[in-house]
Amino acid sequence: MSLDTLTINWFAVLCIASLYLFLYLLGTRASRRAAILDFTAMTLAGRRLPLGIGVLTVTATWVGGGYLNGTVEAINLGGLWHAQAPWGYALSLIIGGLWFAPTMRRLNCTTMLDPFQKRYGPRVAAWLYVPALMGEVFWTAAILTALGVSFEVIAGIPFMPGVILSAIVAMAYTARSGLWAVAITDVVQLTLLLIGLSTAAWFAIVEVGGVSLAWTAYSTSEIAQAPTPWIPWLDAALLLICGGIPWHAYFQRVLATKSPSDARRMSLWAGGLSLTAAIPAMAIGVVGVSVNWSQLIGSDPDAAMILPLVLRYLTSPLVATLGLTAMAAAVMSSVDSSILSASSMATWNIYRPLLKPEATSTDLKRIIRRLIFIVGCTATLIALNTRSVYSLWFLSSDFVYCILFPQLVCALYDRRANWIGASAGYIVAFTLRLGAGEPLLGLTPFISYAEDVSTGLVWFPFRTFAMLAGLFTIIGVSRLTGGRYPAVQLEESTQSE
Length: 497
Prior knowledge:
Helix content is about 75%, strand content about 0%.
């Protein structure tokens, strides 16, 4: 399909413009209601985030455009077996709630990098910020890409202006009001998402003849088959489950809760709700497989465009606009979280300890607002140059899983882990993962992992291998060097449950 044939849907444009204006006004109003006075209040909502709002903002952050459009894309590329994000990220929130969130909250940290900084020093923490930043930037780019494609197909808005406008609005109210604005707007955005996408999914199913016919068409297709070999599939699943934990966008909400018990409950409830919220996207993905697109639009579209195409061609213009509004809401709820997260870590763990230790709260607020725009613009540039949502969305967890997950485990639970072990683990994990190459970044492999010669598919679980190698390197090297470089222990807050 040629996008040149699309005409602007002014009703859809009006709806999106109204949504963006409403979100901006709501976000800026949140700053006055929250009485933001210092850096911690801006980034952690004064550590008084209500449990209900916490559940909704975590869910809204996870269920973004990349999560939804990426799920539909994955189903149309490899079937439901490859739609791993809904249950993978749900499990990551549940595991995070059981073993990581309460501990982090008891430590009374300001960012996810604080345990690294306290145990390994500010310079090692600065290096650990690199994969954290890459994850947030690629995640944001995936989200913006999903929205840009949807704008293009449904509203007739060119990809570039749609992406740029969305990014500007999200950056504007986030820089103005911080976490309170993000959390309050997330509640509205998640509500719109659930209503809009559920309605669109229902109408699309009816259009193709109902659930039974759609499922029959899907189940008899080639992509419905179980994946072979299983090892790469399992590697990807572990990537999403464990790689979904070390994100400051998640821990920012954990640290903003009133108590460790609230942090645990928030994570568990958000895990269940995020899985539920993915059902409409999974239904749309199945519908997309059952449609003969060549007959409908004259060609087979890219899998990344299936969701907006289903909305445009299998629902009424009103429902399509409602679905587009839902997508826009989902995107904004994740973009604002990601750019605030990356900027918070840069300000608190890089600028403050390494560049200006004497910085006041006013200084930190000024810096974080500048960084919000820098991070947002970087992600926007990546989105403008990559059209595969699934690739960006998957890559966002890649280095987080390989490098940050073993570091987080050891920082919290290995009392003998020291900065030498952390540095060695970082180098080992980074080298082993980079050795596999990355087509999206134009990186060629320099390590020959086992692969299927006939298909070129690397079946060796190089991501999990890199993660485990990093984990055991931290443990081993720390014990070998612990006599000369003793480990620094973390001190928990005396705050009650």
